Amino acid sequence: MGFVDLYSNSYDQAVNLSKEVSKGYANKISGEIDVANATLNGIYNSILFAKESGTLNREQVINLLKTSLEKTPSLVAVYTLWEPNAFDGKDNDYVNKEGHDVTGRLLPYVSKSNDQTSVIPLVDYDKEGAGDYYLIPKKTKKTSLIEPYMYKVNGKDILITSLTMPIIDNNGNFIGIVGADISLDAIQGIVNNAKPMGGYAEIITGNGTIVANGANQDLVTENFISLDKSNEDIVNKIANHEEFIKTSKSSSTGDISLRVYEPILANGVDANWSFGSTIPNKNVYEQYNKLLKITLPILIIVVLIIIAVMFF
């Protein structure tokens, strides 16, 4: 095998490995999202039927959320939020009761900590950014994976992503949401375990938010483009759900690296996240460089011998 072939094969092997790693972990994270989505579908169907048939009151809806949360260990919280008087027309009777605020709207946030569940009313649902978990599905009428954000759970700020599903009545009107929160600690753990050829992995959204990073966790929630303007091309491709390969400088390590990105696809979910594997070029061509170090001195000796034979 010639050096050119070996050089090319080293690159091809690194690309194939990176693709395999990225696809495998992207599918694993898609699986986490699918679990949350299945839970939401169950809650959605039960609550919508209850609203239309009058078979569940608000207290029973909260108990349904508690049961769903207990059966799904991967979730931090589940919740529902209804438009004014959209559930049963009794908002005035529930002002400041469990899972309600001063409006009386049904908006319980059921979370768990240390195997205990707690119920509080949702907050900030009318504020852009903090309330995207409600405002985005209300606007798009699509199940949405929300950009990571900090949210207070049981008095503690944690980084989460929300999967939220709009509740649509028989007339096609938006009447509320059901949602589930997924802690990014679990996803960061998945990313930390991915070290393709001594490199690292990361998850980037189509808006450029760093969801997880295996090289530098301090970069989580930072904007990928703000780290390096050249990352704009990567983010644009992620936003378009593209699978792609790029060789460029890593924003996390500063090394020229092979970077392979695979979209994270979840059934029925409007999302544009991507799982990326980054391998330093020195690791990509490690096999080539090792062989070169061994064979180059030999080749030099052979050439010198040939020259000596020819001229002496």
UniProtKB/TrEMBL annotation:
The keyword Transmembrane helix applies. CDD domains: PDC1_MCP_like. Keywords: Membrane, Transmembrane, Transmembrane helix. The chain crosses the membrane at residues 291-311. This is Cache domain-containing protein.
